[in-house]
Amino acid sequence: MAPFKNLFTTSINISRTLSFPLPRSRTHRSAIALLLLSLFFFSSTSLTNQLPSFLTASSLASSILFAANYISPFSSITSSRTCLVSDSTDNCTLSSVTAMERTRMNPRKEEEIDDVIAGLSSCDIFNGNWVLDDSDPIYQPGSCPFLDDAFNCFNNGRPDLDYLRYRWKPHGCHIPRFDGRQMLRMLRGKRMVFVGDSLNRNMWQSLVCALRESVENKSRIFEIEGPREFKTRGFYSFNFVDHNCSIDFVKSPFLVQEWRSSDRRGNRRERLRLDMIQTPSFNYHDADIIIFNTGHWWTHQKTYKGKNYFQEGRKVYNRLEVNEAYKKALWTWAKWVDSNINGSHTRVFFGGYSASHFRKGKWDSGGHCHEERQPVTNDTLLKPYPLMMKILESVISEMKTPVFYLNITRMTGYRKDGHPSVYRTPNVHQRIPGIIQDCSHWCLPGVPDSWNELFYATYLLSHHDLSSNN
Questions:
Q1: What residues contact residue 269 under an 8 Å CB cut-off, 6+ apart?
Q2: I want to staple 42 with a disulfide (CB 3.0 to 4.6 A). Which of 156, 160, 193, 466 is the partner?
Q3: Is 152's pLDDT higher than 60?
Q4: What pLDDT was estimated at residue 53?
Q5: What is the pLDDT of residues 153-176, one digit of tens each?
Q6: From CA 44, how far away is CA 269, in angstroms rounded?
Q7: pLDDT tens digits for 52-91?
Q8: Distance between CA 378 and CA 413 in Å, rounded?
Q9: Where is the Trichome birefringence-like C-terminal domain (predicted)?
């Protein structure tokens, strides 16, 4: 039995058998393979020179057309330039990873990478289900000192660990187990930045803890900017000294600028400038990797109602539908990315909407999830695919800067069991019935570790393609 289970068997009941099979998704398998994403970023030669000799212009066009119709298994995008990654020309460009040259790496390791590439060549890694897996988590519960209390369900007294017994498995392919040492080797000398809301912060802390687990001398990980600075400046950074890399988080819940001011009577006013990107205290446009997200703050009451809140230039909208405001904000973000980020240097990712699971009310009106102990097992019980994500996909398809879309929406829809609920605080007295529960964020370790595993698979392929071509 795994050491993890040995450690906690005496105090926590994790022997419960959950043998149900999660049903196979009825959505289509996407032809947008990660292999059709990575080469575009790193090649300075022509597309013709990038492609294997056996791939004719006709077959390439056919593949692009097929892939364009499957940006996501949940969306239908009709733009003539529909493309998960796009270039500055009028034509979509989806590139395939060339055959890897033989290197001096360990033969077994090389074969493993070849197997990964072959398996992902026609697989949508975001279309799958959660399977039981009793292997150890990427990092042990309670072991990472970098977690917010709000995400640290184990330290906050959650009595079960069943939510750690599942691993995401795409239909038709295998994703590699997260390898922190390999990830750090690929991040050597680089800066990685997460920009967005607290769900992106969930993913950021998951990655930092996963990388910390693989570092032998953990004292060589430093907080460049810590909790105190974050509260005032919205910036938090860790530096892995031995690898000369930093993993940063920039708070920007809307990606566009939120203003707070007071009128002559002293009444507080808030406005969301849909035409202005939020300017952080620290520049990040030249980072090597940027992962953006936005979504949950758009569902808050003041945002959702949209009354005298959204502003463009001097115009304040008396009433604006939130989806229209979201679209305007995303276009502001997209134009900023296209104007300020060098796509040949910086890899840009955008994280999809992470599902919430409030029952019998919203977060501030008695909604709860503390009784959930198993994932959703019936696809018909999943919430509809959010319109906001269809809007995001449409915007990305028109950008000149290549963007990797991390479509985590459906995979999180299943996991009603993985939220902090009443275990968002270490104070046991705050876990009485009727308190506000957290059914939006995720326990760590937990579901966001799988997001980073999918990110790792994507980055692993693109990194090896870069190494091969160099």
A1: 260, 261, 262, 263
A2: 466
A3: yes
A4: 33
A5: 999 999 999 999 999 999 988 888
A6: 49
A7: 333 333 333 333 233 333 333 323 233 323 233 323 333 3
A8: 11
A9: 175-457
Q: How far apart (Å, rounded) are the C-alpha atoms in residues 177 and 456? A: 9
Length of the chain: 470
Residues annotated as catalytic are 198, 438, 441
- Cα angle 286, 292, 297 (rounded to 5 degrees) comes to 140
Higher pLDDT, 28 or 350: 350
Cα–Cα dist 98/103, whole Å = 14
- Which residues, 6 or more positions from 153, have their beta carbon under 8 angstroms from its beta carbon? 141, 420, 423, 424, 443, 444, 446
Query: Given a cut of 50, is residue 46 above it in pLDDT?
Result: no
Is the alpha carbon torsion for 204, 119, 375, 158 positive or negative?
A: negative
**What is the rounded distance in angstroms from the CA atom of residue 162 to the CA atom of residue 271?**
43
- The span from the CA of 315 to the CA of 4, in Å, is 57
Please give the span between the terminal C-alpha atoms of the chain, in angstroms, as a whole number: 43
What was the pLDDT predicted at 18?
A: 38
- Cβ atoms of 213 and 180 within 8 Å: the answer is yes
The DSSP code for 136 is: P
Amino acid code (one letter) for 334 = A
